[in-house]
Structure formats: structure tokens, C-alpha cells
Amino acid sequence: MTAPAGALPTLRRTPLSRLAGVDRLAVAGAVLLGIIVLAAVFAPWIAPYPEDGGSATHPTEALLPPSAEHWFGTDQVGRDVLSRVLFGARTSLVIVVAVLAISGTVGVILGVVAGYAGGWVRDVIMRVTDVFLAFPALLLSLALAVVLQPSVTTVIVAISATWWPWYTRLTASVASSVATRGFVDAARCLGVPAPLIVFRHVLPNALTPVLVQLSLDGGGVILTAAALSYLGLGAHEPTAEWGLMVEQGQALFTTNWWVVTFPGLAILITAFACNMLGEGLRARLAR
Amino acid sequence: MTRVNGTDQAPEPPVLSAERVTLGYGGTAVVHDVSLTVGAGGGVGLIGESGSGKTTLARALLGLLRPRSGAIRYGSRDLAELDRKGWTEFRGNVQPVFQDGSEALNPRMTVGASIGEALQVHHRMDRKERRERIAELLADVGLDAALAERRPHQLSGGQRQRVAIARALAVDPRVLVLDEPTSALDVTVQARILDLLERLAAERGLGYLLISHNLGVVARLCHTAHVMFAGRVVESGATLDLLTRPAHPYTLALRDAVPRIGGEPPKPAGRTEAAPATTGCPFRLRCPFAVDRCQEEAPRLKRVGTRNVACHRAKTVLELSAPGTPVEARRRARLRRSRGLWRRRRRR
Amino acid sequence: MSDALISVRDLQVRIGDRVIATVPELDVARGECVAIVGESGSGKTTTLLAILGLLEGAAVTGSITVAGVDVLAAGPAELRRIRGSTVALVLQSPQSALNPTMRLGTLMRRALARHGVKGDEARARAERALADVLLPPEVLRRYPHQVSGGQAQRFAIALALALGAEVLLADEPTSALDVTVQAEVVAVLRRLHEERGLAVLLVSHDLALVSSIADRVVVMKDGAVVESGPAAGVFARPREQYTKDLIAAVPRLPGHSAEVQA
Fold first, then answer.
1. What pTM was computed for the model?
2. Which of B78, B310, C50, C66 is the most exposed place for a label (fewest CB within 10 A)?
3. Beta bridge partners of C221
4. CB within 8 Å: B95 and A189
5. Which partners does chain A have (≥3 C-beta pairs < 8 Å)?
6. ipTM, 2 decimals?
7. Which CATH number fits domain A46-53+66-276: 1.10.3720.10, 3.40.50.300, 3.20.20.60, 1.10.418.70?
């Protein structure tokens, strides 16, 4: 029996207060992320010392504490930390977007194919997925990164190679259940060819959990990229990258705290913002 | 209801048929040795409750499920042997209407796009032609063309079901397989959908395979009916006949259990929890007429009068359910007491 | 009106600005079977829930008296007392209302204990109640998912009986059941109604069912009462057009009724 949504009062407590709270979380996360993205995009224009984001060095101004000229102080070779943090945002942004795009696309496509096709196709895909999942992501990324030359590209490749299986597994299970729904049967009865069914009917209806996962994963990617760079396998001098900056500044923590603290905070806040957005999305879509 | 039965013409050669079909998922068989035919220009009903296998049979008849044994035929051709061209023809002539309109339509597509997809697969049309045809189809099922831009969740249950019918009609089929098409709808909406289906059948010479647990709906649209229990057909024949004078105890139980406006309260036959028996007749554990033979020998479908019945005691049941017996006479006396109601009922 | 188990006057349920249901008058006397009939969105379920004070987030005005208790003014303790013991609720899908991790026997024992009935008295009541609904005592050892829909529904009725319910509020109690199973549950209800004087307030969209078992019927549409009165009269001689439309829309079964038709 159909009833217009919201017509009947329910036995449960009306989630009016909870509604605003959860949406506020998603909105706050989105806003914060938006600020970070804007900062990254406009870094060359808003950074007070844009050349410090690159290869400029000022040995005479090394390790100056935060002041009016240098809000975040300077690092060991005199570069403005604020500018480097802003440029570091660009690097991180590129890494996150690239990784999520690559692993998301590969993972989702494999997942819907596995979910819809079933049978041996699904078995093969899921076993390959299982093999990749059996390795701890960081270890696999490390192994790959060691083999390749340290660079931002390496970081992207290494992390993508270990992240796609999660999306496949997630998508395959949702796609399996979408494949049993009436409109998929109806499309089969119309004689719609299988690839069209997968991309027009199964995929759009299987995306929701993946989108949630993607936004949650943004934070994870940033942390993993920072870890790889920290270990010297990713970005290297003179590129501004948060993980690298943390590695370079950690020894100075007790004497010149600003060199490591600000990049560290940047990692924390960005990861947190991604999480807020992801959690907010998850709650919103689950309603 | 009498209109369909009254204008009973001999059904044309079957468009769709099941020939001794056994179906199952995994290890267990869900449908056993079932045969039936559906022709253009006639309604065939499949009556059954949950667990009867009716939906599984419907899926097989739509080519969505391959039989373990037996054959599903389109015309004279076995579906299992169809080539690509054959499948396209089959798909263009046999279409489903499912129970729940909100499930039968892709929630992410507009209603017009869903209908348009049907047109794209089977006809060559440019965008303008397609848009016009979609508007025509919507009008055919009594909907405003403007609804084409809406998503399924923006429509009412009755409207969604009409869209599902429009999509099925888009390929110009000869037979529709309808699985509980009105069960999820309010009774007034259901009546209008049944009116629509009746009109379409008359106008287009469509054949229906109508699956429903609702005897009244089947009586309205189908001249022939098959009753299914535990995956087997237990009785088939002309709908009016079958429901007026059941020859199988299960059909009798069903008919007596259905409440009627102004009528007696539903009569229980008891022991409905008993699972279908695995030896002999599957219905015997619930059957008030069961004798020893029912346990030893599974009854086969046999001709009894104008009917096919799978029951060793069919003749007894037939006598008992016929008008003129003491049971019937008592029932009718009770009904006569509420005479006013019956006088009001006009022929539809 | 004083021996009416349930008495409703000028009931109105609102959410924000929208009026969901308006019922000027509704009585259920001892031993009576009253049915509220209507399509989706008619407000029938809302009315039922309002009578038990189970509506949250909605503004309910009017007077609702259940077994002498003013539902709108009563505190939670008092409502708990009458709910389950005097007035019992039976819903459409019993298995979702029953705790899946608890055996049915445990469930009954706990429910009885909550209303102060323990030990031998509880056991005796349980046995009698099960016998009344034609369920074998073994059913108490099962879990909700191990019994059929019809058995679960009869168990819900048995629970109500064991707690001493005088009136049963049922919301589409048989809609999810096969028609043969429905007939069994309805037969149980009718026997209890006729032999034990159990009053029933039934909400249903199934007119034929209602017409064959109810004493009085209330027809609702879009939140308002369209027509009400003795069931036989309303179905034989409907006054309002909507009632006539509803009755006409029910698909008819051929059968001996067709022969009686003049």
C-alpha cells in the first residue's frame, strides 16, 4: 500500500533534532574541505612567499619563530612555512584526487561486472581482489614505492594499486543485490544488452555506498601519502609535501616546534574534514 | 466479470507455453512438471499462495530462468534453441508487468526514459518520434504526457503501475505476463487498473498470463485458470466453472476462505502449517478428504468433466461443491436472509 | 457509553499544520467488533495508534477513554498498565514485532511477569490462551522465525488473552497472510469474540473481510470519517458515494452468490 511520504506519524521518535546535527556535520566537513581546496588552488596567489613553495632558499632566515612576517615561522633553510603548507595542499590534493579517481574507477567497474555477471566471472574477480586485500595496504604501497623512484607519481601509483580492491568488494555486493531488482529483470525482458544493463541500471543504483566510502577515504589517502613521503619514498626536496615536511621537522620538535607542527596540523585537519564529510554523507544517505 | 467470460472466443494458437516444465534454484525443485498455454486474445490465470511456485514459473515463461526439464516454447520454438533473432522476436512479443511499480522502474531514470528504453531496443526512431510515441503510450494507459519527466518516487502506486504497463506495451507485445499486478494497490486503484487491462485486451487482442492469489481479480480477467499448490498444477479449467464448483480440495479451501461483501465469514480448512507432503499427494496433510491412497500414490492431472484435476477424490469434491447439495442449500438459505444486499448487486 | 471499553470523541491528529485524521465519534463496547476501513492515507492506522497513545511527534486533541482511563492525560505508568493487559495491539507483521532472540515461551513469561503474574498462575494462563487460539504448547519452545506467519499472529492474540485483554486493537492483522491462513486467524478471532466476549477494533483495507466479521464499521477517507454504522446496513445500503465506490471496486467472485443474484 502506498502512502505519501510523511503522511503517517510513526511510532519512533521523530528525528527532527538529529536531522540537523547530522547534516551540520556533512556541511561542516564540506565547508572545511572547500576552504582547503581553495587554498590549494590559489596557493600561488595567496602564499606570502610563493617562491618558498618551490626551490628558493634563504639560509640567513632559517628557523625564525612565528611572527608578523612569517605567520608559521621558517624552516631549516629559511623558507616560509605557511607558504610551504599552502603549496603542500596542492600536492596532497593532486594525490588524493588521482588516487580516488583511479582506484575508484577501476574498483567500481570491476565490482559491478562481478556483481551482475555472477558465476565464474565473479569468482575470478573476487579472488584477485582477495589476493590484493590479503596484503596490508601500507606494506604493498611501500614495496611498490621502493621499486620505483621516489616521486609523487610513485605515491599515486602505489596507493591506487592497493586501494581499488575495497571498492570492488563493496560494489560487487551492492551490485549483486541490485541485479535482483525488478527493473533489472524488466530490462532483461526488453532485450537490453548486458553492458547497457550494467552501466545504465546497475551502476547508478550501486554507487551510493561507494560515494560515501570515497569521501571517507580521502583522509586515509592523505595519511598514507604522508607516511610514504615521511619514509622517503614519495615527494622529495624541494617539493612541498606535508609528510615530507613532518619528516624534516620532527627532529626539531623540542627546539623549533613550528617546523613540524603546522604541516602536521594540516594533515590532521584535512583528514578530519574528509571524515566529517564522509560520515555526514553516510548518515544522510542511510536515512 | 461476466463480460470476459461471456464473450468467450476460442483462444488462438498458443503464443507462449510451458511443456512439462520443472524448475528449481540450486538443489530443490520449486515447480514440478507443469504445462500450460497462453494465447493472444485470452486471459489465463495462475492462482496460488506463497510457496506455490507461481512467480518462479512466471520468470521461466519470461525467459529469465532456464527449466531443469521440459521446455518453454514461444510459438512452436523452444526458448533454449532460439538464436539471437529469435530472442529479439520473443522479447518483443512477451512482456512482464510486476507487482511493485516502484521496483519495476529504475529509480534513477525518469519514467519517460524507462519507456523510451523499450522503444529504443525494438524500434528505430529519432528523438522527436520517440517523444511523441511516449506521449501516446502514456495517454493509452490514462496518464498525462507531462508525467514523462517525473521519477518513479514522484508518482502514486497506481500511476507507477500504469507506466509499467505502458513500457510493456511499447514493444507491441502479444502476451503480457502479469505477476500480482494489483496486489500492492488500493482497491479503487486496483479496479481502475483492471478496467484498463480489460480495455487493452479487447482493443489490442492481447493475451494475459495473470498470476494472483486474489480469486476475484482472476475471475475478472481470465477465462481459464490453473490452481497451483507446492509447485504443481492441481486443477485447471474455465475460471467460472472452477470457482463455482471446485473439483480439488485446495481450490475448495481457497474459495471458501475468501471473504465476500455481505457474505459469510471466511471458512478455515485447518492445518495450514502442515508442510507439503513429500510422498503421495503433497496436499494430503491438509486435506479433509484424504484417504490411504493419497499417501501411496501421487495423483496425476486427469480429465474430470470439463476440468483437469490432480486428485483421487475429485468426483467427491465436485459433488460436494455443486449447488443443490445440503451444504450448499444451507449456505444459500443463510444468504437469502440478507436478501437486500444481493438484490442491490447489479451485473457488471 | 459508560460500558464502552473505548470511547473517542472529537479526535483530531495533526502534524504541524496538516490534519492527519479527524474522528468525531467512535465507541467500542464490550464484546463488539468494530472495524475502521479505508484506503492508504485514510488515517485509519493513525486513529488506532492515537487511541493507544502511541503517536509521537503529532498533536492529538479530543477525548480518548480506554477502560476508564483518559489516554491523553494519563502518565506513562498508567498507559503501560492498560496497554497489554486491558488493551492489546496486534500488528500486521507479527514476526517483526517479536524479539527474534527470545523463545516465544520466554516472551510470554516475561510479559506476564511485567504485569505481576508469575509462576503457576502464569503457566496456567499461558496454556489456556494457547488452547484458545488452537496452538500446540510446543510452540512455546520455538523462536519467532521458526513459526509461520499465521502461527505468529495467533501467538500475538494468545499473548493478549493471557494478559487478560478485553479489547484487541488489530492493524491489518491478516494482510500479510495467505487467504487460507487468514481464514484460520479470523476464525480464532471470531470464536474469541463470540464465546469470550473479546472486543475487537480492527483496521483493514479489506472490505470483504470487514463486511463478513464486523458488527459496526467506520469508513474513512483522507483523514475524515465518511460513513459509519452497523456493518450489515452500511454494506447493504451505503449512503455515501465513496462507500458505494469502494464496495463496487471489490472484484467479485463467481459462485453460488452469482446464482442467488436475481
1. 0.82
2. B78
3. C224
4. yes
5. B, C
6. 0.85
7. 1.10.3720.10
